[in-house]
Amino acid sequence: MRKPELLAAEIEAHISSGLLKPGERIDSVRELSRLKGVGLNTAVRAHEILEDRGLVVTRPQSGTYVVGPRRDTGVTPPRRRLSMPREVDVPGLVSLVFESAQAQDVVPLGAACLSPDLYPCEAINRFTRQVLREVPELPGGYALPPGQFEYRRQVSRRLARHGCTIDPAEVVATNGAMEALSLALRATCAPGSAVLIESPQYFGILQALQQLQLRVVELPAHPRDGADLAQVEEALEKFDIGAGLFIPNFSNPLGSLMDDARKAQLVDLFARHDVPLIEDDIYAELSFQGARPRPLKAFDRRGGVLTCASFSKTVTPGLRAGWLLPGRYLERVKALQLSSSMGGGSLAQAVLASFLASKEYERHMAGLRTHFSLQVGRVSQAVQQCFPEGTRLTAPRGGFVLWVELPRGTDAVELYRRALEHGISISPGILFSASHSYRNHVRLNCGNRWSPVLARALRKLGELAKELVPGTRVA
């Protein structure tokens, strides 16, 4: 083993033993070089190895911090069985999860929302004032489909940096990602059509499918790699599929990431069957390794991929700024948007365009990625320490949610109810499936700042979960 690997292994051992804890700063490359008597290049390479393994994250002008150990404790792999097309019936519990996320006296581990102070509100306010000074009449005008050119140009520029060349004319500005997804589904599917989706799937998407009177075919997804391509092909051949809807980059709730080779194969499969493929790309900018993974659209050669995203999870939810790449469905999407919402907000698009064009956006995103990487590590560690024996959880490489599998027979809905009585909100697993599966699973939101309140909430949640494990005696 070479010197960099040996040095990295030594630091990794300190992380695994708890000598170095999540959130703590490790020695800089210069400090490491001096303390260990090795060359600077050796120290640099040791840092790179630790970062590649997801054990540390570097924050510019701040230092390198411990994330791990980021152990995948083996969420049970899915059964290789497709569902028959079925109607969607989302439990009313969804509304309560969203409502509790807004309550001031509740620790919000349910809805996937960020603490307000993690958004660059001061910068957004400053850019808003600047835009209004330059164009004071802007709030008096519509931003009719496809939206303001400069906003669409900035979206195109960002995509081009990640291997996805899109003309601004091919971008449609939307009121957040959910409008983008709704437009994509309406443009490609008629009521009653079957949509192929990964399972578990974000309950907001299931709600949209239900409202549009669409059926679903659930495709069990692997917690690390996402959809099984052999099963995708089986579904496309077996059923009359109107469209596919996937989250290839840090899916919600699994956090799975599909590699480029499998993305290209997925796009090719749908193209060969002439079925449109809808992509939710909202978490792609939140990679813990820093490099944004490429969207499915980067592999699209026939215009059959419709990519949806927004800045609600990264910059500001209040401006409702999203976008859609409709491919060959561009004209239909524009017509649908014109008849439903008349387009997005002119002020929101102008403000986001200015912010994206500035250096502040990249600085903000670098800090946000570091924060989520550390926070997911801290929450993971708390779950491993406080939850019942046999609890398993995912090890996402991006995003800010954790999928937790409780011991078999544990009622996650009852855990939700008891937790809420103690001022803690969570999302029970049944919300993430049209068949109401995942009854012993919960999704935890890591979009908060670490605090004593949060630590106590996770400990209490673990105590409540232990009480619900079948066969457990309560003192």
From TrEMBL:
Q: Which SUPFAM superfamilies does the record associate with it?
A: PLP-dependent transferases, Winged helix' DNA-binding domain
Tell me which family the UniProt entry assigns to this protein: In the C-terminal section; belongs to the class-I pyridoxal-phosphate-dependent aminotransferase family.
Q: Locate the HTH gntR-type domain: which residues?
A: 1-69
| UniProt keyword annotations, A-Z | Aminotransferase, DNA-binding, Pyridoxal phosphate, Transcription, Transcription regulation, Transferase
Task: Kindly provide the name given to this protein in its UniProt entry.
Answer: PLP-dependent aminotransferase family protein
> A single Pfam family, by name?
Aminotran_1_2
Q: Which GO terms describe its molecular function?
A: DNA binding; DNA-binding transcription factor activity; pyridoxal phosphate binding; transaminase activity
InterPro entries assigned to the protein according to its UniProt record, in alphabetical order: Aminotransferase_I/II_large, HTH_trans_reg/aminotransferase, PyrdxlP-dep_Trfase, PyrdxlP-dep_Trfase_major, PyrdxlP-dep_Trfase_small, Tscrpt_reg_HTH_GntR, WH-like_DNA-bd_sf, WH_DNA-bd_sf
PANTHER family xref list? HTH-TYPE TRANSCRIPTIONAL REGULATORY PROTEIN GABR (PTHR46577), TRANSCRIPTIONAL REGULATORY PROTEIN (PTHR46577:SF2)
Determine the domain of life of the protein's source.
Bacteria
